[in-house]
Amino acid sequence: MGDFNPTIIGFACNWCCYAGADLAGTSRMKYPANLRLIRIMCSGRIDPQFILKAFKDGADGIFIGGCHPGDCHYVSGNYKTEKRIFLVKGLLAGLGIEPERLELNWVSASEGQRFADAVTAFTERIRQLGSLGLNSPAPVELAIPAAADVGSPKPDLSHLRAVPEAGQFESRMPEFRVPDGA
Ligand code: FES
Q1: What is the pLDDT of residues 33-89, one digit of tens each?
Q2: Does the residue 178 lie in any domain?
Q3: Could you give the number of structural domains in the chain?
Q4: Domain holding 96: CATH number?
Q5: Which of 30, 35, 45, 146 is buried most deeply by CB count within 10 Å?
Q6: More confidently predicted of 33 and 144
Q7: Residue 161 located in a structural domain
Q8: Is position 122 within any domain?
Q9: pTM of the model
Q10: Which of 38, 78, 106 for a ligand 1 pocket mutation test, highest count of atoms within 8 Å of Cβ?
Q11: Which H or E run includes 61?
């Protein structure tokens, strides 16, 4: 596991986390280079589909960074994100993906060190979890029939009730008799 180099996709809101990442960079703070950071205007822009697609396309972990609660530049975007991430984590668990592979963190524009520390800790966690490997195609086994079996197969209808021949139908019409002497 020590050689495993995870792919981590990050989504950072423009106003806080992305600025914090910028500060970490300009201050030459060190953090693992596994993170590919995508700038979004607000963490509330995160659609669960972004997360599922990133995992499907090969991400081993996803880091989402937004403004601290109460600091969102769109008032309540990060509160919505928090609820959404809670639901997506449940969905991931249902799909057999460790919810720990998804991280939501709050980083302000002045917290370059907090950003570097959060990314370092998250990268180490993903390293421990190992590769998710969703983008490595599973081998497909094709069942190719033998040449003798190719043709129009007769359907097995043995479970159906036998259909009676025309002469086998019983008349269900009641028999009317005219009483004698009428
Ligand atoms: S603007 Fe940063 S989380 Fe909304």
Answers
A1: 999 999 999 999 999 999 999 999 999 999 999 999 999 999 999 999 999 999 999
A2: no
A3: 1
A4: 3.40.50
A5: 35
A6: 33
A7: no
A8: yes
A9: 0.74
A10: 78
A11: strand 61-66
